[in-house]
Amino acid sequence: MVSTIICPRCKTKNSKKAKVCYNCKNTLKVHKKPSILGSNPESRIEPKIIIIGALIFIISNAIILNIAYDYSILVSGFATMVYLYYAFKDSQVPTASKNKTRILGFKIILHYLAIVALGIITLFALGYAN
């Protein structure tokens, strides 16, 4: 059995791969599962944000490490959260989502954990963390 998409305007059955209705020429929504990695707004992890955040984490940690050793991770984590606030301030969550704020919060936490993990591994590799 062939999968079909029903046109919302004229209720005609179209093929699953159809982009327009063959009866009324209405544009059909193609349901694609978003990739985990990517630069589209629906993706879960954005590598560019993680790399920039990790650089901010590492640089702020290296600078504060010489001033106040005990607070270096705390300050670099705060700097990373400020960066993530500005990175996701105007972020759009897909409109089909019911809990937009919750999804955006999970996305920010996921990015933060990836940034901190990458930053700490890099600091250990560079020899800053003992």
TrEMBL record:
The keyword Transmembrane helix applies. Keywords: Membrane, Transmembrane, Transmembrane helix. The chain crosses the membrane at residues 49-65, 71-88, 109-129. The keyword Transmembrane helix applies. This is Uncharacterized protein. The lineage of its organism: Archaea, Methanobacteriati, Methanobacteriota, Methanomada group, Methanobacteria.
